[in-house]
Design a protein that fits this description.
The complex is a heterodimer of chains A (267) and B (412). Chain A is of the alpha/beta class and 267 residues long. Chain A is built from nine helices and ten strands. Chain B is built from 13 helices and twelve strands. A six-stranded mixed β-barrel of chain B has the order 2-3-8-5-7-6, surrounded by four helices. A two-stranded antiparallel sheet of chain B has the order 9-10. The model of chain B has no long low-confidence stretch (mean pLDDT 87). Classes of the chains: A alpha/beta (267), B alpha+beta (412). The structure holds adenosine-5'-diphosphate and magnesium ion.
């Protein structure tokens, strides 16, 4: 049941898109709880509902049914303004396509969340440069996106996600547009941030990347079919009879080993 | 204040798309430049005319016959203003505020000198005409009291008449023939320098008696020769109205008009002339400005058009900004201020262009009018362009706020 101490808590969440006559169940009764400080990977085939799930966690979208709470506070009771403020302060987003503003220097991109947080200009520039230093791009603060490599652009996006010191970082296929080596660099950066206390939720297609997470959630057709963290594995996962998740406690990497076959099937 | 922080955002976004921005501003630039230039021309022209009028004295009154309102001769002047009226008005006892009453009878007639001839407006008048109308002499003198009394065959001509007839202007003592009669030139008027309003370059002046008795075939009314108009001076600018009342009283009495009858003459003062000119130029300026204002509206619609395209193009940016914590009001203000900055910039460029034109016009020698751009016109131009930006930017900005962040982020 709902764990009010959890950072994110979902109970029986559904998301239905009406496409003309037909209904698309992007999510179909998902229950999930993520604690502060976790490192979670969400895997699943394309169209299985991963991004939809992330959008709901990130307060960009609201579920059709079910209860969703952030730090014990129900999202359905929040105004648009409050949701915007939560996105601004508590959540950092990293997207597959980086989503940087064209022709804008890196530090201005990173400064954006601070602008919406009403941080004074002088302070926000300083903090933007600090965040860029954190991702190793302090030398490139004045570079525009077309003057940066893909990996560097993604690091700018990560600096932007971090600059307002969120408690949760959501990354939707962050290495999808990068080659293996730069993808590896970006993951190393994420892990460094996780060690510093950030809660990490990464959506990925890449098996090797998923394996690095401490908890792997596998989705198919809008339901969670396995969750390596047995304690929070959903009822729906078992109902579908697809729970390959061994209830293995820490060390988590072991659990991932056991999950591997299952996930290959899914991807 | 946070509001001001949207301006650099707007400037960045405009700078990132200079071509699009300048095309967008073009409508506003042209509109503002057109409005300011037209207002400037209107103001310059009316200042010009007013100067001209004022230079001719502000105490002058002109009495002219009314026009016939019905019957065969409708539109023609009533033939009731006569030399008898002129003599009556000259009586200082009844008209303490009126001085220098000057009759005029004019018509167009051919002047001949040797083998040259020229169709000229010749006016019969008296010696005071030169003072009342503030004429200046280039050569010789004006008609004298003696010449008026004796109805001498003497004439004062304008420079254009002199050069056309004699190919020079030092022609005092020469003779011109009017209707076969020889007239001696006693003076040449100074060139007025402008071909328009109030110029006497193309005129000739002869004693009123000569005009009445010999040159023109002038009808009489109650035994007196009629005149085409009468000029007079008031003793001072303050007494113009009093002078006007005194003249009106005498003329109404002499013309036998009852209390309910309309006057068969009109008295115009320089003040009323100034009023009329002001009204005419204002109407003209207003008309032209409304035409120019239409181009501002067109420019505003251009802004709206481009802003709508811009919102669609930047759907993803809007989605991103919302994901990063932008409120609806942040998005609204961002786009609104962007269009405000665009139009203000356009307005300023338009102002610069019209100022440039004004400076240019000043450098052209003898250009008839100056371009006068007042502070009020500037305030108007800036206000109107800012208004355009806000009004025409509002709809696109509202469209931007309505975008759903995930939809916007999915947008390719
Ligand atoms: N805005 C939308 N309108 C209609 N269908 C949608 C929309 N967003 C997602 N879907 C559908 O929901 C399902 C899940 O999509 P998504 O969460 O993007 O999957 P994933 O990220 O795992 O590839 C897909 O079938 C997709 O087509
Ligand atoms: Mg996806």
């Amino acid at each position: 049941m709902a764990d009010s101490s959890a950072l994110v808590d979902m109970q029986n969440i559904s998301k239905v898109y009406q496409m003309g006559e037909t209904k698309v169940h992007a999510l179909n009764g998902v229950s999930l709880s993520i604690e502060a400080g976790e490192y979670v990977a969400i895997v699943g085939t394309s169209g299985s509902g991963k991004s939809t799930l992330m959008n709901i966690i990130g307060l960009l979208d609201s579920p059709t049914e079910g209860v969703f709470a952030v730090r014990g506070q129900r999202a359905s009771g929040l105004t648009g303004r409050q949701m915007a403020d939560l996105r601004n302060r508590e959540i950092g987003f990293v997207f597959q396509q980086f989503n940087l503003l064209a022709r804008t220097p890196a530090w201005r991109q990173v400064e954006l969340p601070l602008f919406y947080a009403n941080v004074a200009r002088s302070a926000s520039r300083k903090r933007a440069l600090e965040a860029l230093a954190q991702v190793g791009l302090d030398e490139r603060a004045d570079h525009k996106p077309d003057e940066l490599s893909g990996g560097q652009q993604q690091r700018v996006a990560i600096a932007r996600a971090l600059v307002n010191r969120p408690s949760l970082l959501l990354a939707d296929e962050p290495t999808g547009a990068l080659d293996t080596r730069t993808g590896e660099e970006v993951m190393a950066l994420f892990e460094k941030l996780h060690e510093e206390g950030l809660t990490l939720v990464i959506i990925t297609h890449d098996q090797e990347i998923a394996e690095r997470a401490h908890r792997v959630i596998t989705m198919r057709d809008g339901v969670i079919v396995s969750d390596s963290d047995a304690a929070t594995t959903t009822a729906s996962g078992f109902r579908n009879g697809l729970s390959g998740a061994a209830p293995a406690p820490l060390p988590r990497p072991v659990a991932i080993e056991q999950d591997k076959e299952e996930m290959y099937e899914a991807v | 204040m946070k509001l001001f922080r949207y301006f650099p955002v707007a400037v960045d976004s405009i700078a990132a798309n200079k071509m699009r921005a300048s095309l967008t501003m073009l409508g506003i630039i042209i509109g503002v430049a057109a409005v300011l230039t037209i207002l400037g021309v209107g103001r310059g022209a009316s200042a010009n005319i007013l100067d001209e009028v004022a230079s001719q004295g502000t105490t002058r009154l002109t009495i002219s016959p009314s026009t016939e309102s019905e019957g065969e001769g409708a539109g023609a002047p009533v033939q009731t203003l006569t030399m008898g009226d002129v003599r009556a008005l000259s009586d200082a006892a009844f008209h303490p505020d009126v001085v220098e009453v000057v009759p005029q009878y004019g018509g167009s007639i051919q002047l001949v000198a040797g083998s040259n001839n020229k169709q000229t407006r010749v006016t019969g008048t008296t010696a005071d005409y030169v003072g009342v109308h503030r004429l200046e002499m280039a050569e010789g003198r004006f008609l004298t009291e003696d010449e008026i009394a004796q109805m001498s065959n003497v004439i004062v001509i304008g420079t254009a008449v002199a050069t056309d007839l004699f190919e020079r202007t030092q022609v005092v003592g020469e003779s011109v023939r009017i209707d076969g009669e020889p007239f001696t030139v006693v003076g040449v008027l100074k060139e007025s320098g402008n071909a328009g309003f109030g110029s006497n370059d193309d005129s000739g002046f002869i004693p009123i008696g000569a005009a009445h008795g010999r040159i023109f075939n002038v009808p009489r009314y109650r035994g007196e020769y009629i005149v085409t108009s009468v000029s007079a001076n008031a003793v001072s600018e303050e007494r113009v109205e009093a002078a006007e009342r005194q003249i009106e009283q005498t003329l109404r009495l002499r013309h036998g008009l009852g209390a309910d009858d309309d006057s068969d003459f009109t008295i115009s003062t320089q003040a009323s002339l100034l009023d009329t000119i002001g009204t005419v130029t204002n109407t003209l300026t207003l008309l032209l400005s409304s035409i120019a204002a239409i181009s501002l509206v067109v420019g505003g619609i251009g802004i709206m058009n481009i802003m709508l395209v811009s919102v669609t193009e930047r759907t993803k940016e809007i989605g991103l900004r919302k994901a990063l914590g932008a409120h609806t009001s942040d998005v609204l203000l961002q786009f609104l201020i962007e269009s405000l900055v665009l139009t203000l910039l356009g307005g300023l460029i338009g102002i610069a262009i019209s100022y440039g034109l004004a400076l240019l016009v000043q450098r052209i020698p003898n250009f008839p009018i100056d371009l006068l751009i007042g502070v009020d016109a500037l305030v108007l131009a800036v206000g109107v362009s800012a208004g355009c930006g806000l009004i025409f930017g509002l709809y696109p900005a509202m469209r931007a706020t309505r975008l759903d962040p995930i939809e916007a982020l999915r947008y390719e």
